[in-house]
Amino acid sequence: MADVLHTYNPKLVTCALGTHMAHGFADDSFISVEPLGDGTTLVQGPDGEATRSIDPTNSYTIKISLQQQSETNVFLMNRYYMDQSDGNGDFPIVIKDILGQDKFTASECWVTKIPANAKGKAQANREWELNAVFGKFS
């Protein structure tokens, strides 16, 4: 096995929400993408015969953690209210690690609800939950 050095730099993780480039991420874990489907499931009968089912769901829950002063909070809040008002608050999303090979895209994404809003001595974080359909990793 060859000696290989890989580099990860969180500053080079980008998140495009439509035409808005997200910024002001929270410290530590700031973006997570989780599939909503069941993937591939197995059912095995009493005689040992097995069948697997492949869930065609390509929907995802995306969580984005932002510092409370991030302008991306304003963008997401506006999209949420737009969606509640006339159903036109959805947008495409692209999450890319520029140094790595990770890339997630979805043509339709929306804010599911407004995050909790806490105030304290120091700035707090806001965790936004989005849903996306027609998503894929590449």
Which structural class is indicated by helix and strand composition? mainly beta
Low-confidence stretches: none
Strand order of the largest sheet: 2-1-7-8-9-6-3
Count of strand segments: 9
What's the helix-strand series?
EEEEEEHEEE
Cα end-to-end separation:
26 Å
Mean pLDDT comes to 94
Tally the helices.
1
Oligomer: single chain
Shape: globular
Overall number of domains: 1
Largest sheet: 7 strands, antiparallel
Q: Portion of residues in helices? A: 10-25%
How much of the sequence is in beta strands?
35-45%
Radius of gyration, in angstroms, nearest whole number: 19 Å
What this model shows, in words?
This protein has 138 residues and is mainly beta. It has one domain. Helix content is 12%, strand content 44%. The chain has one helix at residues 71-86, and strands at residues 13-17, 20-21, 31-35, 40-44, 50-54, 60-67, 91-97, 103-113, 125-137. The strands form 2 sheets. The chain has a 7-stranded antiparallel β-sheet. The chain has a two-stranded antiparallel ribbon with strand order 4-5. The longest helix is centred in the middle third of the chain and has 16 residues, at 71-86.
